[in-house]
């Protein structure tokens, strides 16, 4: 190390020492223990980090702080540059030098402490301890037009947790990949930055643990568990509707993590504005950051998903059968996988290749045509009843025509679907010819407004609702 380089190394040491006094201890050790002095040249200091993830985070959070501190110490304009180097090179940087003017023999808090590679077994245990599903990774997620925004947002968060897009809410109907993306974020962080503490829970798990902590008088232990993480991932927050005490606890947990610049990602089956019995102050927290939606996959994406799943399972199936599934199963990824699994299982158990006719027979009424059997009332039934009342066909209500004779029946059907089923506006919009969830929300508001000003019209809606809920369909 030359005399000039040695001087800048000394300045780097003092810079890191000063920054240490201004940052929380945990934050400092998490990031500055992973930066090493590499070299300097012509008013430029080059610092080394071991991954792109660390590089992006350090640049976003600390580069200006490092540069300004070093300028103050040297009285010179200093350019701070970062390089990603291999862990082996990091280890070489740390080796004590035999030259008297080399870096000190004892490594400092600012030289990156090269950590041994975490074994696959230990990584797997860490993921399970965090409640993560190790099989959900970004590379196993099939990206389509319906999911590109949510996928890229999730990947950006995984690479730079707490830096941007915080908090983030991913919403959409069942089986569209929300849980997959949420787990992918956690798995990516553990794979690349095992020092960060990740916690994944469903809203139901969060609620049950909170109730249990009250009963066992261990609420402080519960608070510590969720407020001392670096990344908090909570699935299905619509479960919190009407649970006031749990909402109160999550509100305070949210504030604590947000102020500490810790990353939070949530999922929900609908936009926050559509949740019922959620406090305004908690809703405003969810909406504070980035909100992205997952739409049902289009035909091309459905085919890509089926082919990828087929390869993963080492099976084979004719293009004709895959096309049949992709054409008919329009609801979500889960239903696609279910249909494929059923055919693969039949083929494997009987040891014979499955024919197209046999595939149609086995699948019977496909999920898209079954209209989600767990719902007591299908959207198709609502459209049919409304269409019969106004003497228009279901095809016309779902269609694109904007005749006055069609707009109101269409809006009424949307209003009733939103009012008497548990479908999200995204799912309802899909059943109405692939319309956007905002169209459904507008229709609901429009019909609600008309009912307030027209008693006769309100009676019509009440009658239709009564007929549907009483089983006259």
Alpha carbon gyration radius = 28 Å
Stretches where pLDDT falls below 50 for ≥5 residues?
96-116, 367-375
Q: Within the CATH hierarchy, at the fold level, what is the topology of the largest domain? A: Rossmann fold
CATH architecture of the largest domain: 3-Layer(aba) Sandwich
| Total of DSSP H or I helical runs spanning 4+ residues | 22
Order of helices and strands: HHEEHEHHHEHEHHEHEHEHHHHHHHHHHH
**Average pLDDT level:** 83
The tally of strands reads 8
Give a quick account of the main beta sheet: strands, pairing sense, barrel closure.
5 strands, parallel
Pfam families: Bac_DnaA, Bac_DnaA_C, DnaA_N
GO molecular function, one term: DNA replication origin binding
Subunit structure: Oligomerizes as a right-handed, spiral filament on DNA at oriC.
Binding site for ATP: 175, 177-179
Write a concise keyword list for the protein shown above:
473 residues, alpha/beta, GMP Synthetase, Chain A, domain 3, Rossmann fold, Helicase, Ruva Protein, domain 3, 4 domains, five-stranded parallel β-sheet, three-stranded mixed β-sheet, 8 strands, 57% helix, globular, P-loop_NTPase, AAA+_ATPase, DNA replication
């Amino acid at each position: 190390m030359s005399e000039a380089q040695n001087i800048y190394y000394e300045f780097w040491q003092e810079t890191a020492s000063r920054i240490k006094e201004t940052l929380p201890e945990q934050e400092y050790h998490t990031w500055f223990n992973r930066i090493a002095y590499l070299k300097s040249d012509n008013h430029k200091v080059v610092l080394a980090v071991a991954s792109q993830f660390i590089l992006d985070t350090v640049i976003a959070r600390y580069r200006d702080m490092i540069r300004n501190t070093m300028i103050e110490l040297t009285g010179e304009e200093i350019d701070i540059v970062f390089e990603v180097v291999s862990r082996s090179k990091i280890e070489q940087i740390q080796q004590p030098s035999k030259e008297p003017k080399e870096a000190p023999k004892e490594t400092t808090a600012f030289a990156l402490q090269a950590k041994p590679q975490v074994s696959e077994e230990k990584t797997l245990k860490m993921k399970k301890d965090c409640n993560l599903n190790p099989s959900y990774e970004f590379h196993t997620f099939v990206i389509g037009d319906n999911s590109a925004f949510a996928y890229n947002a999730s990947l950006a968060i995984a690479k730079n947790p707490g830096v941007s897009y915080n908090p983030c809410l991913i919403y959409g109907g069942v089986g569209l990949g929300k849980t997959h993306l949420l787990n992918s974020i956690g798995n990516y962080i553990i794979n690349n930055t095992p020092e960060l503490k990740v916690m994944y829970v469903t809203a139901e798990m969060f609620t049950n643990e909170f109730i249990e902590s009250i009963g066992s008088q261990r609420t402080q232990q519960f608070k510590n568990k969720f407020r001392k993480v670096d990344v908090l991932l909570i699935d299905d927050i619509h479960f919190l509707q009407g649970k006031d005490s749990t909402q109160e606890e999550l509100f305070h947990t949210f504030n604590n993590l947000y102020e500490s610049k810790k990353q939070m990602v949530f999922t929900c089956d609908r936009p926050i504005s559509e949740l019922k019995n959620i406090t305004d102050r908690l809703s405003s927290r969810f909406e504070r950051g980035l909100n992205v939606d997952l739409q049902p996959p289009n035909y091309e994406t459905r085919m890509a998903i089926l082919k990828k799943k087929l390869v993963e399972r080492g099976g084979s199936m004719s293009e004709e059968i895959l096309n049949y599934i992709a054409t008919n199963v329009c609801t979500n990824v889960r239903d696609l996988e279910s249909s494929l699994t059923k055919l693969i299982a039949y083929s494997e158990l009987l040891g014979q290749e499955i024919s197209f006719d046999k595939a149609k027979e086995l699948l019977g009424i496909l999920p898209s045509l079954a209209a989600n059997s767990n719902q007591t009332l299908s959207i198709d039934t609502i459209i049919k009843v409304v269409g019969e009342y106004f003497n228009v066909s279901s095809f016309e209500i779902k269609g694109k025509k904007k005749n006055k004779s069609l707009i109101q029946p269409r809006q009424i059907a949307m209003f009733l679907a939103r009012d008497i089923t548990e479908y999200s506006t995204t799912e309802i919009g899909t059943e109405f010819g692939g319309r956007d969830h905002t169209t459904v929300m507008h229709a609901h508001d429009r019909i609600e407004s008309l009912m307030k000003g027209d008693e006769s019209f309100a009676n019509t809606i009440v009658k239709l609702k009564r007929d549907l809920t009483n089983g006259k369909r």
